[in-house]
């Protein structure tokens, strides 16, 4: 799946027949997103706390299966099951590293890899430039999972199937094939959805057409998983299933369907946002500002702004040099009857260097500047340093919200 900066997210299903996973532009969570496990190829790999939940669930389910296959293990079966969970997620990591290596080969940049509740995420910073690269970037993950499944299949033939190594290798073989097949399903946010996007993009010449098709396919897939996975599990019932098993299948199907649905919708929103970014121009977004001194009563400043048709108030010194920006949120918090008695200087933020933005900024450069110094208002300046106007962050948010909603 992709986020709004084109990050590739690869979804992985847990073993046992229950498939599983994979912001306005931003850097996303950093190290707080999990425990740093290493930096293969210079890319940080994190394990999120939610991974321990799924690892415990896999250990419990696989341990129960081992009780039927290898009853002589006793309580040791849960240690074996835990080793399976760890080995399975090592396979997931290899799947993600495949995406990472191709992304690095294409110089797309990789922010991090996360192992989490229902799988892995490779966060790739930029979109592929061509449909062929997009297709290969998505396809290489499932391909590596197939290769791993084949390796475990071959290794399993060298040991006794009814032994601990045989059971582990068989489980890893099946789970990797399931990972490959599930990820090839044609819908965002899965790898198959990215492949479908690439195909439609190649046929139409329009990346957005591919994203729309893959997004709707992902939503259809979410509905199919929500309904089909419990029905499939029930159809394989040999009489040994319990009510708890049925409840677990339904819960996993609901969680998975929600993840796929949200990923499909998020992928489309991200694509719309990326398409709208070039049209995000600071000169068009800036409001006209009325200059006042710091001791001007708020009521008087607002009156001047209304008369001038201005949407912002700028605090200047005795020479007319801008020194502060009146915060819109602070103005709204002042009751109407108190506005004649409050000076605008008490509601202003001093002009730090990051609050001065060149009027010619646009697109991702503009968003990058806003992220560098978070604020509600910014002074927009001409190349000669003179004031052009004031940018209100709410205006940027509204413009992007309309773009994401397709309006």
Automatic annotation (TrEMBL):
<dbReference type="InterPro" id="IPR016483">
    <property type="entry name" value="UCP006404_Pept_M50_CBS"/>
</dbReference>
<dbReference type="Pfam" id="PF02163">
    <property type="entry name" value="Peptidase_M50"/>
</dbReference>
<dbReference type="InterPro" id="IPR046342">
    <property type="entry name" value="CBS_dom_sf"/>
</dbReference>
<feature type="transmembrane region" description="Helical">
    <location>
        <begin position="82"/>
        <end position="104"/>
    </location>
</feature>
<feature type="domain" description="Peptidase M50">
    <location>
        <begin position="170"/>
        <end position="218"/>
    </location>
</feature>
<feature type="domain" description="Peptidase M50">
    <location>
        <begin position="84"/>
        <end position="156"/>
    </location>
</feature>
<dbReference type="InterPro" id="IPR000644">
    <property type="entry name" value="CBS_dom"/>
</dbReference>
<feature type="transmembrane region" description="Helical">
    <location>
        <begin position="167"/>
        <end position="188"/>
    </location>
</feature>
<feature type="domain" description="CBS">
    <location>
        <begin position="285"/>
        <end position="330"/>
    </location>
</feature>
<protein>
    <recommendedName>
        <fullName>Zinc metalloprotease</fullName>
    </recommendedName>
</protein>
<dbReference type="GO" id="GO:0008233">
    <property type="term" value="F:peptidase activity"/>
</dbReference>
<keyword id="KW-1133">Transmembrane helix</keyword>
<comment type="similarity">
    <text>Belongs to the peptidase M50B family.</text>
</comment>
<feature type="transmembrane region" description="Helical">
    <location>
        <begin position="41"/>
        <end position="62"/>
    </location>
</feature>
<keyword id="KW-0645">Protease</keyword>
<feature type="region of interest" description="Disordered">
    <location>
        <begin position="1"/>
        <end position="34"/>
    </location>
</feature>
<keyword id="KW-0482">Metalloprotease</keyword>
<feature type="transmembrane region" description="Helical">
    <location>
        <begin position="209"/>
        <end position="232"/>
    </location>
</feature>
<dbReference type="Pfam" id="PF00571">
    <property type="entry name" value="CBS"/>
</dbReference>
<dbReference type="InterPro" id="IPR008915">
    <property type="entry name" value="Peptidase_M50"/>
</dbReference>
<feature type="transmembrane region" description="Helical">
    <location>
        <begin position="135"/>
        <end position="155"/>
    </location>
</feature>
<dbReference type="GO" id="GO:0006508">
    <property type="term" value="P:proteolysis"/>
</dbReference>
<keyword id="KW-0677">Repeat</keyword>
<feature type="compositionally biased region" description="Pro residues">
    <location>
        <begin position="12"/>
        <end position="28"/>
    </location>
</feature>
<keyword id="KW-1003">Cell membrane</keyword>
<keyword id="KW-0472">Membrane</keyword>
<keyword id="KW-0862">Zinc</keyword>
<keyword id="KW-0479">Metal-binding</keyword>
<feature type="compositionally biased region" description="Polar residues">
    <location>
        <begin position="1"/>
        <end position="11"/>
    </location>
</feature>
<keyword id="KW-0129">CBS domain</keyword>
<keyword id="KW-0378">Hydrolase</keyword>
<keyword id="KW-0812">Transmembrane</keyword>
<feature type="transmembrane region" description="Helical">
    <location>
        <begin position="252"/>
        <end position="271"/>
    </location>
</feature>
């Amino acid at each position: 799946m992709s986020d709004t900066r084109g990050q590739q997210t690869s979804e992985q299903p847990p073993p046992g027949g229950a498939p599983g996973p994979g912001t306005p532009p931003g850097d996303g969570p950093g190290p707080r997103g999990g425990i740093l496990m290493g930096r293969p190829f210079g890319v940080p790999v994190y394990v999120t706390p939610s991974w321990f939940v799924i690892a415990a669930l896999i250990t419990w389910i696989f341990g129960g299966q081992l009780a039927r296959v290898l009853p002589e293990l006793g309580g040791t079966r849960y240690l074996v099951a835990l080793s399976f969970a760890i080995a399975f997620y090592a396979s997931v990591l290899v799947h993600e590293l495949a995406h990472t290596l191709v992304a690095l080969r294409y110089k797309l940049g990789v922010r991090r890899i996360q192992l989490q509740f229902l799988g892995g995420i490779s966060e790739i910073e930029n979109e592929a430039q061509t449909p062929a690269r997009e297709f290969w970037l998505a396809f290489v993950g499932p391909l590596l999972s197939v290769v791993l499944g084949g390796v475990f299949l071959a290794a399993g033939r060298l040991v006794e199937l009814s032994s601990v190594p045989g059971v582990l290798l068989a489980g890893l073989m099946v789970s990797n094939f399931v990972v490959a097949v599930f990820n090839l399903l044609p819908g965002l946010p899965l790898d198959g959805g990215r492949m479908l996007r690439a195909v439609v993009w190649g046929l139409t010449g329009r990346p957005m057409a591919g994203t729309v098709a893959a997004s709707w396919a992902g939503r259809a897939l979410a509905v199919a998983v929500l309904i089909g996975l419990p029905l499939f599990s029930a159809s394989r019932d040999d009489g040994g299933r319990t009510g708890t098993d049925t409840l677990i299948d339904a819960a996993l199907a609901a969680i998975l369907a929600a993840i796929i649905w949200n990923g499909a919708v998020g992928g489309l929103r991200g694509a719309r946002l990326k398409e709208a970014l070039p049209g995000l121009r600071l000169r068009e977004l800036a409001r006209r500002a009325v200059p006042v001194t710091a001791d001007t009563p708020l009521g008087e400043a607002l009156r001047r702004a209304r008369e001038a048709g201005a949407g912002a108030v700028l605090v200047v010194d005795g020479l007319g040099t801008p020194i502060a920006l009146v915060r819109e949120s602070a103005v709204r918090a002042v009751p109407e009857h108190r506005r004649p008695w409050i000076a605008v200087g008490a509601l202003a933020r001093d002009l730090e260097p990051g609050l001065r933005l060149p009027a010619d900024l646009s697109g991702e450069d503009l968003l990058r500047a806003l992220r560098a110094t978070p604020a509600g208002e910014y002074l927009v300046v001409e190349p000669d340093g003179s004031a052009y106007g004031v940018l209100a962050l709410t205006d940027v948010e509204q413009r992007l919200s309309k773009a994401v909603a397709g309006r």
